[in-house]
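Lab channel / #folding
Pinned by the channel admin:
"Please post every new chain as: sequence first, then the structure tokens as a reply. Keep commentary short and put observations after the output so the thread stays searchable."

First post following the new format, from NK:
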Amino acid sequence: MDAWTGHEVPTLPTTAPPLRLYDSARRSVQPSAPTSPATMYVCGITPYDATHLGHAATMITFDLVQRAWRDAGLEVRYVQNVTDIDDPLLERANRDGEDWIVLAMRETALFREDMEALRIIPPAHYVGAVESIPAIAAHVRELLADGAAYTLDDGTGDVYFAVSAAPSFGYESNLSRDEMRTLSAERGGDPDRAGKRDPLDPLLWRGARDGEPAWDGGDLGPGRPGWHIECATIALGLLGDTIDIQGGGNDLLYPHHECSAAHAERLTGASPFARHYVHAGMIGLDGEKMSKSKGNLVFVSRQRADGIDPMAVRLGLLSGHYRADREWTDDVRKAGEQRLARWRTAAAAPAGPSGEGLLAAVREALADDLDSPAALALVDAWAEAALAGAGDDPAAPALMRRTVDARLGIRL
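Reply from TO:
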């Protein structure tokens, strides 16, 4: 599957300091010190609706990570998936009387357009679940042979992973069993299904059902993959046994990231699966998390169609810290538009305060767990000084433009 078209990222003088990031498993900010290439896997969309601002905020978060690593002189190997077969996609297609393949292709294409408009650096590999099914089925068979999985004894052909085969299960999310059971029921799991050895056991392979698409699973029989094994398989195949970052929204911490890490660790024997588990906060509207189920989505494509500059949208999302759950409001949007206009005017000034000083300060802010609000405040202060005629560095406006482009992804 093809990703979107990228853009040229300016090269900045000297190099950035090492990145420090909050790790959900250790519940603290820890140094990120990858060797080159730095490896990152970020969970992508299930393409049954257009890109909303929650998706955009998550992708911007990991775009900042990639920009920080590149600025530190690292090669980056970044992989993102597309869950182009799953229950929500089939349910939406059935509801609308649409072919699920056409729906997935259309929404994936729109997602690419939105990512390009927001100037997200594309992943090196953009991989669909459907194209990965042979490798996924092979991993499920391997887990069965290893005794880490079992077939439900009800004739469905459904295969489950035994969490008892993962002694460290729960280390990533730090949740109690009761909390995990509650979230499993809310987020696509089936803890109350009869016949499972443990309510927390996640689905690896769903046997074929009438009216549903299915693929050859070899000894598994026809069916389709579970959600968590999809990401484990894609990441292992393209990034290796241990990766630097597994990332996504904080609603993926459990069960998705906990389970996919458990699958990967059992398959390889390497632990932890990721050196950093990084999770972005949710974007809310009118006091509630923005989600398809609530019907309170603000779509990137709608903002674009309304003539809102994607750079203003990006600035609005960057104005809050990536780990914070935060609101999208008209005031946030307007502040992003005003900031963009002010920065563009300042970038056209004949001179300004030290560009090297601004670059160093922005780098340090972003090295501190991607503190984008602090970085924006630094650029605001530089812009106000330049507009007031302070500073006599004629090269500063050009370096300011390159700094906000390379590190914040903002085109002025």
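NK: DSSP finds 13 helices and 14 strands in the chain.
TO: also worth noting, The longest strand covers residues 76-82.
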